[in-house]
Amino acid sequence: MPSFTRLALSALAATAALATGINDYSCKSDSNPVIFLHGLGATYYEDLNFMQYWLQSKGYCTYAQTYGAYDGFPLVGGLKAINVSAPEIASYIKEVTQKTGKAKVDLVGHSEGAFQALYVPKFEGVSHLVDKIAAIAPPTHATAFAHIYDIAYLFGNSSRNAVSEVLHLVGCPACDDVGPDGAAVKRLNDGTPIAQPGNKITIIASKYDELVTPPKTSFIDEDGVNNTWIQDTCPLDPVGHIGEAYDLNVWHLVRNVLDDTPDRKFVCLLGSPGK
Ligand SMILES: *[C@@H]1O[C@H](CO)[C@@H](O)[C@H](O)[C@H]1NC(C)=O
Ligand SMILES: *[C@@H]1O[C@H](CO)[C@@H](O)[C@H](O)[C@H]1NC(C)=O
Ligand SMILES: *[C@@H]1O[C@H](CO)[C@@H](O)[C@H](O)[C@H]1NC(C)=O
Fold first, then answer.
1. Which of 5, 94, 161, 218 is buried most, with the most CB atoms less than 10 Å from its CB?
2. Are 25 and 99 in contact (CB under 8 A)?
3. Example GO biological process term (predicted)?
4. Domains within the chain, CATH numbers bracketed
5. What is the reported pLDDT for 172?
6. For residue 271, what pLDDT is reported?
7. Chain-wide mean pLDDT for the chain?
């Protein structure tokens, strides 16, 4: 991670320490509950966490759990095969609707989590519980990223050894799943629509994404899907893959998805210069 991002993170971490609102089932909001799905190698408290705190401060009730982690290695999520994590996520969606008493949730996913935000409604029988989906840089049609296992390190616990131990012991089926010819990619693109009836999908991608490549692999060419470059709204934002989770411009775009106000204006910041 470039030093700018690390600096920004440590500043944000101070704020985060004060936030306690994730998975608060007594939280009340007029909006749907928002479920966050983290990326490969990440956890519920690493990756989309700062966006969550920001959205909480705007009045949303937010929910997140780590998915796809192996027993004994809770610090590294998203490693299990897509089709193993997907039922975990589906039951979490059911749990959140039941516990909040709301009919539907909105999904916000980043990277592998964005892929799951598309995959789970299509295959796990929960599309009727989902309203809006903000998918940030999903490897929808696979990523051609050459060193796909490196993805697992990106969000990883700063203790790189711990991550490498997990990868060595149990591997990263999800890495293969979203790579070229990945099984989950093939299944998602099986010729039937990805967008399910009643779901409103917005794909948010950066032209400068260096990991989910080529970046337009994220887009879905189907009616009712809004494919948008971050740079369509904020032309000067040079954000890359990891930075997408920590980029205020992206947070605003996501908020506009959740409020169904795609064209509501906000002031673009230059963005985190880096990846
Ligand atoms: C899940 O996907 C893997 C490929 O990643 C495949 O080998 C396996 O059979 C699938 N399992 C289920 C339950 O669909
Ligand atoms: C990182 O991993 C180490 C052990 O490998 C653990 O003690 C530490 O709490 C972890 N840090 C975070 C932020 O998860
Ligand atoms: C898609 O989203 C972008 C970014 O929020 C917005 O500018 C655009 O108007 C949206 N398009 C549609 C058709 O809603």
1. 218
2. yes
3. antibiotic biosynthetic process
4. 3-140+193-258 (3.40.50.1820)
5. 87
6. 52
7. 88
